[in-house]
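Subject: Interface between my chains keeps coming out wrong

I've been trying for a while to get a sensible model of this assembly. When I model each chain on its own everything looks fine, but I need the whole thing in one frame so I can look at the contacts. Pasting all components below, labels as-is. Any help appreciated, I'm running out of ideas.
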Amino acid sequence: MDLSLLSFIVMGVAAVLLSAVMITRRWPVSAAMVLIGVMTLLAGMFGLLDAHFAAAAQIIVYAGAIMVVFVFVIMLLNLPPEELRYGGVTVGEMILSGLGVVVALLLGTKVGRGFLTTGIEQLGLQSSESAPHLHRSVFAEGENVKNVAASLFVDYLWAFELISFLILAAVIGAVVISKKKGAEHANAA
Amino acid sequence: MLTLPELGLYFSFLMFLVGLAGVMFRKNILFMMLSVEILLNAANLAFVSASRLTNTIDGQVVMFFVMAVAACEAAVGLAMIISLYRTKASIEADDLKALRG
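Reply #2:
Try treating it as a single job with all components included. I did that and got this:
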């Protein structure tokens, strides 16, 4: 068996199992640490899929920045242990979720098989010669970051600029939401 | 024999199921948000796998956008959790029933 395939399977199984471990933790901090492990495993999978920029961004942005915010908020809340009760899953919930999994499997295999076998050709994604600027397709060694940058700053420039407005709005929203109570506190003091 | 990107699609499906179970069964809002991160990561894996499968770069660009949206979602959601904990002294979803009809 191919080494990259073997390591991909190992990392994928570990990521799924660690996700299951994460949602059953009692303490938020251990859940956040397990989630960092999941994200690191996903970064390895991105690297094996030749998406080197995605792998680096996954480590820096997700496992770095976003999870630091999570851990910081967990520290800020400083929840008492009785707040962290975990009732487990009832039988009714188990039956309903099993039904949901069956439906999702049927739907996923149907859609996925259609996409994997016939969909790609019909979507016309392979015919990049007709519109080379629309679908950049080079996965050559060391070219990944260059291609992502070319696509991001040429084809998706407007979406990229709009994302900056979204981040600005989110920052303002976060400040306003968390400030409301603090202002009263300042008045009372 | 499955290729790497096809396997990635299957793994992303399984991870999405696990994250969905986390959102549905945990009553703690903090755990619900951590599960949402699993959902977004599964979607990212699907995007990158599809990008490799179709030999186009667009999936990786969309994955970058998903990452930016996830950062916004985490910032606003965590600010809301802090605000809720200050007013209700609880982050259990069952205790937040002011909007129940």
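Reply #3:
Confirming on my end. The radius of gyration of chain B is 17 Å.
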